[in-house]
Amino acid sequence: MTRRWTSVEGKAPGKRLLALAVVLMAVWLSGCAGSSSMAEPPRQMLVAVAPGPALNETLAMLMEQGYVITQADGELGRIDASLARPPGYRIEARGEPAGASGASVSLQGYRGGRRLPPAVVEPLFVELQGRLAR
């Protein structure tokens, strides 16, 4: 005859712990998934310059600021760069046509796969606006 241990209510004590662990894991995972969807969109501005020259100026500015260019494709309108000093993070720059002779330039910062707030790239936008206004 096999003997099974049961708690006072008649349920095995391990089942309650397992159920509690499953519920806690589900709550923890839903918190991780929900935090990334709350991220703000990339910082974006319209400039009165064609996308090609706007991206060229963005590329030059990022290199002067100490970023290492990991990818730059003028046809795709994309630049990826990483900051070579602490605090290390990655910048994605995009340039798209907007209007007859203008462009839309967007910058987004990432650290560890997470989006950084737009305030991180704000100094880069100020610098880029000054360069494109010349």
CATH superfamily of the largest domain: Kinase associated domain 1, KA1
What is the rounded distance between the termini? 91 Å
Give the helix tally: 3
Question: Quick one: overall form?
Answer: elongated
The mean pLDDT is 83
The stretches of 5 or more residues where confidence is low (pLDDT under 50) are: none
User: Taking Cα atoms only, what radius of gyration do you get, to the nearest Å?
Assistant: 25 Å
Biggest β-sheet strands, sense, barrel: 6 strands, antiparallel
Q: How is this structure best summarized?
A:
Helix content is 38%, strand content 29%. By secondary structure, the protein is an alpha+beta fold. It folds into two domains: 38 residues; 91 residues, TATA-Binding Protein (2-Layer Sandwich), CATH 3.30.310.80.
Task: Kindly describe this structure.
The chain is an alpha+beta fold and 134 residues long. 38% of the residues lie in helices and 29% in strands. It folds into two domains: 1-38; 43-133, Kinase associated domain 1, KA1 (TATA-Binding Protein), CATH 3.30.310.80. It is elongated and about 85 Å long. The mean pLDDT is 83.
